[in-house]
Amino acid sequence: MTQDNDLIITNDPWHPLKQLTPARIALGRAGMSLPTRAHLDFQLAHALARDAVHIPLQFDTIKQSLDNSGYRSQLLQSKAENQAQYLQRPDYGRCLSEQSIQQIATQQPQAIDVVIVIADGLSSKAIANHALAFLQHLVPVLTDLNYQLAPISLVKHGRVAIGDPIAEHYQARLCITLIGERPGLSSPDSLGIYFTYQAKANISTDADRNCISNIHANGLSYQQALKTLMYLMTKAEKLQCSGVTLKDETTHNNTKIDFNYQEHLNSVEN
Amino acid sequence: MYKTSAQHLSYDFKTLANVMAKATPARSGDYLAGVAASNHLERVAAQYALADVPLKQFLTEALVPYETDEVTRLIIDEHDSNAFAPINHFTVGDFRNWLLSEDATTDKLTTLAPGLTPEMVAAVSKIMRLQDLILVAKKCRVITRFRNTIGLENRLSTRLQPNHPTDNAAGVAASLLDGLLYGCGDAVIGINPASDNLEATARLLHLLNDVIERYKIPTQACILAHVTTTIKAIEKNVPVDLVFQSIAGTQKANESFGINLNLLNEAHQAALALKRGTVGHNCMYFETGQGSALSANAHHSLDQQTCEARAYAVARKFKPLLVNTVVGFIGPEYLYDGKQIIRAGLEDHFCGKLLGLPMGCDICYTNHAEADQDDMDLLLSSFAMAGGSFIMGIPGADDVMLNYQSTSFHDALYIRQVLGLRPAPEFEAWLIEHDIFNAHNQLKPLTEMPALFKASILKLTGGN
Question: Which tens digits make up the pLDDT trace of B409-421?
């Protein structure tokens, strides 16, 4: 844009307020409308968020990187056959496909404490950017505690509750699901972690889960998220439950833990 | 049994709920619920059948059982048969024809409102096109008052929504000042708190109250916390203007929100007793949205639009200042794309207005819906043409706390220019008095810090 630009658009003299909030304030105006730059900045942010939802996660690449780090893993899929169906049928995203059910049924039973599930959810970018890095914080801690882990389940078109049938299959006490959260304009790659104690398909509800959300470069750090997760898991082992009943005792270290069922429904919708 | 035939096929619809659901224009939430028409022909067949249903039928065939649902009891027990008398012989199809006719004047529609039930207005909306929904809603006039007057002809109000990811006071203040300087905030200055507890709610209520009092702004404040939190705030003498609550159209869905009619009544009485309104006493602010009953598994096999209209019966009971349908927030499993969101917004506005409610619309979408800013522009333009009472005003249309996109301060200025819509008169006078607007409904250009807020801005930014 040329220098004439400054003559055409009206800048807002209160722009120093921008430092106080991530909100899009003091944008100025062209006539009464958005100036070209502010308009394009918005379109850019929206494009990133849309791509996070629609560009498929490269599951093979993720599996390869888990293999390289020495983590056993397996590729699974939900009942949703494609992205459009995944978006419109949350019920399909909570069940494993017939093929995946058969795949895990063939495994030898063994004593398992913890199931880790990684689902693309609503942001492939969140998983691509954060899943392995978070596992590298989490798995050593679980190993130190002598927990037995099932192969890490990588689930295509999965919603939060996809962890339930997997945890139930392994008869695992602890189910940890990493999932791509609904992308915002300022956070297209936000990772969410859901923890469920004794998860069971069609029995566990959102009220039985604890959520640690907003894990990304400008949000919660891996260390903070892990600290909260371990706190919740320790409590859950003691009380033999998870979800809303853990609510009142987890207000430490600034981490926002989202327990409110309706707020969860509205803000995450996985 | 409701029968019709089309193209040599005969259709038997078992119940009225069945006809209603299958007659509903396509949307993902009804497919998810398994109640939608299975093809286009079945949908139109259901619309023919619905057009022949007498309006009276809705008074005798409850779509959710009277015995087990307090919303149904509210609808039936408070129905005004005298107001209904002039149209009690109509079918749904007749009703559509009459609404579109010159005989259906603003005065007649106002008088009729207590005689209408949510199911009647939902039914007629299903056989109306968007232009019908706009034309009829435009004839309705619903005026409410607290510290200003909302809903007058050729006026459009805005809710200023200065949300912040952590409820940081300076962050909220920055967005709040930006919004006021763009002429927004006459419907309400309303914040969605990041955490719903008494301490956070009280702190934000004091902040908004201080701003409104200090600058003598003819508007009202609201923190959108759960109604039980707001009741506690009132008990602690925190300044509460409006009581907020999300509501739905069935008792079971409302229970999932942790509310019932008694609790809402308690909150309404508590807010009324504060007598904080200056030009009127409408002191409730409700939000609704298609799909909320289904998401709580409380839809009783009804379509989501009928459930939504039933929520307006709950709202109507408490004479609200504002009712806001948050149309695209819930996600694509309920409203898949821009087309479905646009229709839902106009249906909700039409149904609410016919029932006598001050309807606004959070014209919005999430990033996993098949929608973008162009879709919002279409809904904004048609909603304003329909005489919508208020819209949201969010910095740059991007809510950094709730992670969705709604309408911006600039969007409000766009529609003011195109359709000549002014803010509430008391608020407009305040904007002109403080050199924010000129007398022609336009922002004044500012080359330096605005005098009114200069001290506050310097204080917030440390004098930089």
Answer: 999 999 999 999 9
